[in-house]
């Protein structure tokens, strides 16, 4: 796909992320895999002011285009593309419920069968490291090797998928799971969970039927 088309899709996905209530201020960032590197949102520009020319290309070696500065989180986007050859789009935000669970430093357990959208029986929580650091990208790499989404301790959420629409959909589903978890956690701890055998069945069903995104 042409660069400008992908850049427009990134901006539209940012605006949709805000519309869904997943984003806090300019905290979120979004990328797509492109020519061995990625196209990613710039640092510190409000989404409603973004134009295609603001989107930054970061190559495989982490070099940026001259005169442009990518989101300070570009390193963990790169780590996701390295950990997951199937991922072409990465969405990151500080959605309130995901971030609240990350502060508890817990994975989201199998409280609902939709947990399987992340590729396993939990949404893990990657250990804390300062934003933008290589250390944080190493934690993300480990967490995302066998999952499509992870919480980041005291920080937020990352979700990846084969395209932007699915990645945003996944980020939204995980936020719903986090909200369900916190709601039940207020009443009982530990929260009842589905057995691993059941999640294995659901994972298999998701594989064969494919996920349908409601338009
Ligand atoms: Zn962040």
UniProtKB/TrEMBL annotation:
Pfam families per the UniProt record, alphabetical: Aldolase_II (PF00596)
From the UniProt record, give the pathway where this protein acts. Answer: Carbohydrate degradation; L-fucose degradation; L-lactaldehyde and glycerone phosphate from L-fucose: step 3/3
Enzyme Commission numbers on file: 4.1.2.17
The protein's UniProt keywords, in alphabetical order, are: Arabinose catabolism, Carbohydrate metabolism, Fucose metabolism, Lyase, Metal-binding, Zinc
Among Gene3D superfamilies, the record links this protein to: Class II aldolase/adducin N-terminal domain (3.40.225.10)
Source domain of life is Bacteria
Coiled-coil positions are none
Q: Which GO terms describe its biological process?
A: arabinose catabolic process; L-fucose catabolic process
InterPro entries registered for this protein in UniProt? Aldolase_class_II_sugar_metab, Aldolase_II/adducin_N, Aldolase_II/adducin_N_sf, FucA
Question: Which reaction does this enzyme catalyse, per its entry?
Answer: L-fuculose 1-phosphate = (S)-lactaldehyde + dihydroxyacetone phosphate
Class II aldolase/adducin N-terminal domain: which residues?
8-182
Q: Which residues form the active site?
A: 73
Positions of transmembrane segments: none
Q: Name one GO molecular function term.
A: L-fuculose-phosphate aldolase activity
Q: Which gene encodes it?
A: fucA
Organism placement in taxonomy = Bacteria, Pseudomonadati, Pseudomonadota, Gammaproteobacteria, Enterobacterales
Q: Which SMART domains match?
A: Aldolase_II
Q: What is this protein called?
A: L-fuculose phosphate aldolase
Q: Which family does it belong to?
A: Belongs to the aldolase class II family. AraD/FucA subfamily.
What is the recorded function of this protein according to its Swiss-Prot or TrEMBL entry? Involved in the degradation of L-fucose and D-arabinose. Catalyzes the reversible cleavage of L-fuculose 1-phosphate (Fuc1P) to yield dihydroxyacetone phosphate (DHAP) and L-lactaldehyde.
**Record-marked site positions (Plays a key role in the stabilization of the transition state and positioning the aldehyde component):** 113, 131, 209
What PANTHER family does the annotation carry?
A: 3-OXO-TETRONATE 4-PHOSPHATE DECARBOXYLASE-RELATED, FUCULOSE PHOSPHATE ALDOLASE
Binding of Zn(2+) occurs at: 73, 92, 94, 155
The record's note on quaternary structure and interaction partners says: Homotetramer.
Enumerate the residues binding substrate. Answer: 28-29, 43-44, 71-72
